[in-house]
Amino acid sequence: DALSSSSTNAIQNKTVHTALTVKANISETTKIFDNVNLLKSDSSLSNGQNVKTLGYSSINDGGGAYYKIVDTLPSSGWYESLNNGKYALLCVEEVLNLKQCGIKSNEDIYLKLYDVFKKCHSVVHRYYLPAGYYIVSDCVIIPPDSEFFGDGLNTEIYYNAEYSYFGMGLGNGGSNVYIHDFKINHKNTDDMWIDETIRSFLGGIGLSSSDFDSWEPHSRTISLLSNVKNLIVRNIWSDSYYPVQTEPPVGDYTISDVLYDNIIAPNGLVSLYANSAETQGFVQLDNCVINKVR
């Protein structure tokens, strides 16, 4: 609430009211499958059918969903390729449960998150990662105009990397980003400093305004945008040295309408870089609030 209501609404209006428009008519669901593999193997499915799965890999695993069968490759949204050459387009109301895309606990979800965000970001703006333990092996860029959230301490992201150039487990891809309700840990290292580079920031949230469109898997060449605006990070627990930081690129830069709220960081600190030697330029802070940090 310390952040201006207009800034908060700017994010929420983007993330809440825009969602995938393809919806299944539940009353016309023609087939029900135990899992996605059985859906894929059914050669009788035809264009326009509405179908349902009871789970992604198995019944009641949290990944059950409705799909619409289509003839042509969808240009956006999450889909499953069927063995008969058609496609099952996932139907989303407002929030995409990432388990419906095959994301599983106790696995490295980095490439899957990349795939989901790239396919869905133009039509889906709210992403939910249910309770579980998820491994991330490199920097993940959250798309602009998006909300990414979990179940608080019950959704743990473990950043499993020896070193990252960006030093972030999660990063925003521009303005209007809301990240909340996660526990974020990182791979421990016996030596905090290696080659005069701090390594224990691994596992944090970096609001570095990376250009989402330029993001490629495991790439260290990501363009940076000129400004950061309308960002909220809330209800985060992290053992990282830098659990949350807004890091501008080199040159003059503006950071505006940013809220850190309820960040628990027993081993580190949060930061907004302003007029820092690291930026080699002037950084203007406007309406930025850090609230309830422990």
Key terms:
294 residues, mainly beta, nine-stranded parallel β-sheet, 3 helices, 21 strands, elongated
Explain what you see:
This protein has 294 residues and is mainly β. It is 10% helix and 35% strand. The protein contains 3 helices and 21 strands. The strands form 4 sheets. Strands 6, 7, 8, 10, 11, 13, 17, 19 and 21 form a 9-stranded parallel β-sheet that branches. A hairpin with a 5-residue loop joins strand 4 (79-81) and strand 5 (87-90). It is elongated and about 60 Å long. The model is unreliable at 10-21, 163-168 and 189-201 (pLDDT under 50).
Summarize the structure.
This protein has helices at 5-16, 36-41, 110-120; strands at residues 29-33, 50-53, 65-70, 79-81, 87-90, 96-97, 126-128, 132-136, 140-142, 146-149, 155-159, 170-172, 177-186, 193-194, 197-198, 205-206, 227-238, 244-246, 253-264, 270-272, 283-293. By secondary structure, the protein is mainly beta.
List the helices and strands and how they pair.
Elements: H1 5-16, E1 29-33, H2 36-41, E2 50-53, E3 65-70, E4 79-81, E5 87-90, E6 96-97, H3 110-120, E7 126-128, E8 132-136, E9 140-142, E10 146-149, E11 155-159, E12 170-172, E13 177-186, E14 193-194, E15 197-198, E16 205-206, E17 227-238, E18 244-246, E19 253-264, E20 270-272, E21 283-293
Parallel strand pairs: 1-2, 6-7, 7-10, 8-11, 9-12, 10-13, 11-13, 12-16, 13-17, 16-18, 17-19, 18-20, 19-21
Antiparallel strand pairs: 2-3, 3-5, 4-5, 14-15
